[in-house]
Amino acid sequence: MTPGDPVVAQIQLGILLRELRETAGLTGAEAAEHLRTSTASISRYENGKQAIKSEDVAVLLDLYGASDRDAAEALRLAAVPRPSGRRRRSASYRDEVPNWFRRFLVLEGEASDMSIYEHETVTGLCQTKDYARVLLRAGAPLAGTAELDRQVAMRTGRQEILTRTDPPPPRLDVVLNELCLHRVIGDDSVMHAQLQRLLELSEYPEIELRILPFRPIPTRNYDEAFTSPQRFTLLRLPERGTVLYLEDFAGANYPEDVALIQSYAAAFQRLRAASADLKASRDLIARVARQYV
């Protein structure tokens, strides 16, 4: 899902409108009264669940006292076309994106650089459809086939950012614990295809993929390579700085404490230093992949 995707634009617009409202010190009820709509509608607009007309956006921008720059950005997002050929797909995406993940989709589309650490499973941006399907089915065992198909399409559709041309694709610095290569998700054929996909992605000029082996590379902070079992992502945004994304089974959060963000950035550098180099990582992936043939 790219920044020009209608779903991403709608989510991004909602986030911006909420930020402007809160900066203005107004409640959702006050915004709803001014727009002559319901508080529930304001909530749906801000959560990216419902499209809002450009003229209504203009009314809210005036109420919020938005700067010329913010107003221009909001109106640009509101004007992103929704071609009929994509309308059904976009609606499906919107239905399958949990509220806590909406902000991440926007940030992922805006990021110029991402540092990603995964401890047990391959990160979403690198997953094959079959690998993603197994994980998503495990997370939603009661989901029907159609719903699962939509979830898989949403996850793999995010990979469009890796091959986009305008803006350029983000630079990815990925560290996967070796456990990700050995934990069997699905069956041997699923794992073989997934590791082949990692090898393919490792050749992309914008992607650096390293494996943190079971026996990490000795460094001054060698022992600290064992102290980061939690997955995390650092996203660098051109105008916002670095955002920390932490995800667990229940959802996600975005800590804003600068010291905490810096500690995760330092942890990533330690994990990276203890990882195999790019060539050795590819060799390790290829060696494990052969075990699944």
UniProtKB/TrEMBL annotation:
<dbReference type="Pfam" id="PF19054">
    <property type="entry name" value="DUF5753"/>
</dbReference>
<protein>
    <submittedName>
        <fullName>Helix-turn-helix domain-containing protein</fullName>
    </submittedName>
</protein>
<feature type="domain" description="HTH cro/C1-type">
    <location>
        <begin position="17"/>
        <end position="71"/>
    </location>
</feature>
<dbReference type="InterPro" id="IPR001387">
    <property type="entry name" value="Cro/C1-type_HTH"/>
</dbReference>
<dbReference type="InterPro" id="IPR043917">
    <property type="entry name" value="DUF5753"/>
</dbReference>
<dbReference type="InterPro" id="IPR010982">
    <property type="entry name" value="Lambda_DNA-bd_dom_sf"/>
</dbReference>
<dbReference type="Pfam" id="PF13560">
    <property type="entry name" value="HTH_31"/>
</dbReference>
<dbReference type="GO" id="GO:0003677">
    <property type="term" value="F:DNA binding"/>
</dbReference>
